[in-house]
UniProtKB/TrEMBL annotation, chain B:
CDD domains, A to Z: Ubl_ThiS (cd00565)
Superkingdom classification of source: Bacteria
Pfam families reported in the protein's UniProt record: ThiS
Record protein name field: Thiamine biosynthesis protein ThiS
Gene3D superfamilies: 3.10.20.30
Matching SUPFAM superfamilies: MoaD/ThiS (SSF54285)
Segment forming the signal sequence: none
Origin species: Methyloversatilis universalis (strain ATCC BAA-1314 / DSM 25237 / JCM 13912 / CCUG 52030 / FAM5)
Amino acid sequence: MSNDILKIGAREFSSRLLVGTGKYRDFDETREAVDASGAEIITVAIRRTNIGQEPGQPSLLDVLPPDRYTLLPNTAGCYTADDAVRTLRLARELLDGHNLVKLEVLGDADTLFPDMTQTLAAAETLVRDGFDVMVYCSDDPIMAKRLEEVGCVAVMPLASLIGSGMGILNPWNLRLIIDNAKVPVIVDAGVGTASDAAIAMELGCDGVLMNTAIAKAQNPVLMASAMKKGVEAGREAFLAGRMPRKLYSGAPSSPTTGLITG
Amino acid sequence: MTPPNASITVTVNGEPRALDAGITVGALLQSLDLAGKRLAVERNGEIVPRATHPHAVLVEGDRIEIVVAVGGG
């Protein structure tokens, strides 16, 4: 499977698991979980610096250096296209011109459901401004297509709501998105455990992005390892092509001749 | 006799601060113990590129945002 490359824009990756870096106990746990996941793309948030904090304190980028991982700055917490665009321009400055970003514009603080009107507007601005935009979106096939048409390099529909761990609630919509897309489709949000990740990949998703499912597991590092295997297993099963479903087959796996009871 | 420095008020990450008139973005970062850190600065909604920090002079009423990368999904 070493030649199974995930291509996002001009960038190539061998891991199809993308992970977030939020909600961990500390930086050590973050780093260990990221390592166990095998992820090459890791998301980070952009926030005001805490003025007056101890100057010697390590920062996230000391723990997860940008020369080792492909950082994917996000716009988590943004509720308008303008805020999302500002945030990602700051991220590009922060990361010395790095232009691969995750756009998400939320519409509701309880469900964290995306606001697709604002998302589409922000995507258009960012693409014009030279960003490679990976976009978090609802699992609406029409909206996913629009986002691809305005130039996003990957569409990232939710499987279920952010942080819910509810798994793949609408596999048929995901299939419609996958079947129509010419850019990678990455399930972002909702995965709860390794079988969810495997199901997403078996559907034909190009990758899975998750944070809470790993960070809030009882043992995050072990769950990161499980997710790596779930994504790999699902991918291989997709490529292998599953057998057709039948209610019953009448065809046992062992020979029907040569039985001693014959 | 040196005249006392004139002061300007600048909003830094949402908090108003009294700063010496003529202070640059670079000098502000130094005074906040942030010099050399991996961060990005925005003034009134526009990026202040790192290379221009030593020359970018703040003026009364500027709204400065100083951001870093933190854990997030």
